[in-house]
Structures are given as C-alpha cells and as structure tokens.
Amino acid sequence: MRLTPQNAVFTAIDTTDLNAAIALGKSLAPISGGIKLGKEFFTSHGPQGIMAVAGETTPLFLDLKFHDIPNTVAGGVRAAAKFIKPNMLTIHASGGPAMIRAAADASAEFGEGRPLILGVTVLTSMDDADLKAVGVESPAEDQVLRLAELAQKNGADGVICSPREIQALRNLCGPDFKLVVPGIRPLGSDHGDQKRVKTPVEAMTDGASYLVIGRPITGAPDPAAAASAIVGGIAA
Ligand SMILES: O=c1ccn([C@@H]2O[C@H](COP(=O)(O)O)[C@@H](O)[C@H]2O)c(=O)[nH]1
Prior knowledge:
Blueprint: E1 9-12, H1 18-28, E2 34-38, H2 39-54, E3 60-66, H3 70-83, E4 88-92, H4 97-108, E5 116-120, H5 128-133, H6 140-153, E6 158-160, H7 166-173, E7 178-181, H8 200-206, E8 210-213, H9 215-218, H10 223-235
Parallel strand pairs: 1-2, 1-8, 2-3, 3-4, 4-5, 5-6, 6-7, 7-8
Helix pairs in contact: 1-2, 3-4, 6-7
The ligand O=c1ccn([C@@H]2O[C@H](COP(=O)(O)O)[C@@H](O)[C@H]2O)c(=O)[nH]1 is lined by residues 12, 14, 38, 63, 120, 123-124, 160, 182-183, 192, 194, 212-216.
C-alpha cells in the first residue's frame, strides 16, 4: 500500500506482547493508514517480530530515533532498509548536518522503495522549561524550526514535530516536506506524558502529512472503534 494523505493515521503499537501487537496490527490495518513500531517492540522482538506485525503490505513507520556518529547512523539506516523495509524511519535532527546527510545518503542507496528519513525535532513530551533544563534557551517552536531547516538542507524527507508547530513549519519548509505528528489527543482523552498536543482534526487542518496516535487507540476498550472514530472525524 502507498502512503497517501487518505491513509494518514499511523497507530503506535507500544508493547512487548507479540500476540497483542499482531492482533492490533490485523484489526487496525484496514482502518487507519499504517502502524508505528518503536523501541519497546523492537527491543523485544527484533526485525522478525516487526515483519510478523506489519507483513508485506501494511505501511510501516520504524521509530528507532537513531542518534550516533554519521557512520553508525548510516549503517543503521542501511540495516533497517535491508532487513525491515520500513516506509519511514527516524533519526534525531540534533545529531547534526553530517549525521542527517549520512542517513539520507544511506537511504538513497535503496532507490525508489527507500525509507523516508524523518528528523525528530523537539520531543512532544517537552515544553520550554524542559528545553531550558537541557541548555536550550529558545522556545520549543524556534528550536523545532531551526532543526527542521537543518534537516531539510541536509536531505531529510521530513520531520517529527508536535501539532503546535505544523503551520509555521509548512510556511518554512513548503508543501512537500513531510510533517509526521505525534502528540495527538482527541478531545477529552488523557494527555499522559505529552505536553504539546492538539486534536486529530486540528492537526490535519493545520497541514500535517501523517498523524501518530498510540494510547488513545491502543488503550481504548475497543481499539478498532477508537481508530474508526478518529479516521471518521478527519474524513468529515
Ligand atoms: O516527539 C515524539 C516522537 C515520537 N513519539 C512517539 O509517538 C508515539 C505517541 O504515542 P501516544 O501513546 O499517542 O502518546 C509514541 O510511540 C512515541 O514514542 C512521540 O510521542 N513524540
């Protein structure tokens, strides 16, 4: 299946339970756009587990957030492209220009079906005070814009940002740059550790390319119904 704005929701399946992840993947694939698997699932079940959940056809976002020296990140991107074949994968944009360029070049070796490289800007669980605590004095939005510009200049296909920065990023980076957006909370749902949030409809209206939604779907009593309600709300 191709990634299109019509298949805009990637469900984050964050669990160590292989069978639960397979069941969620099966029930959600026909409803939302794809699935996102990250550190918790990958560390438990590796590439084979990921293939068991995503199969050959479900769009897959591999969220391992590589952050290392350029040579090591390039190796990680190549290994992911070869053994997992995700549609999109993440690196930390704060790894710097050479690291971003190494990731983009490594992905380009895989031609048309290559994974899109997305730079994580400022984690959606961080606010201005958290940034200050790690030595970044500028507000979150300024830091997101700075890192997105760096990512775009060095060959990344897009960034991970919060819904609060979508409009500013669209103006800065143009219509084709992918904005993949976690920190999505339907009205009334628990924010948990997410600090920079908006609703699914607000994020799509602002110009997101794809939404990443985990607990509001996977933690619902009926995850398929929760996903349908979100997708239906966006379509309406
Ligand atoms: O800045 C970021 C980068 C990645 N994530 C990931 O998205 C999902 C969000 O899950 P929720 O349960 O909807 O909060 C999760 O897998 C994170 O690792 C993010 O939230 N923020």
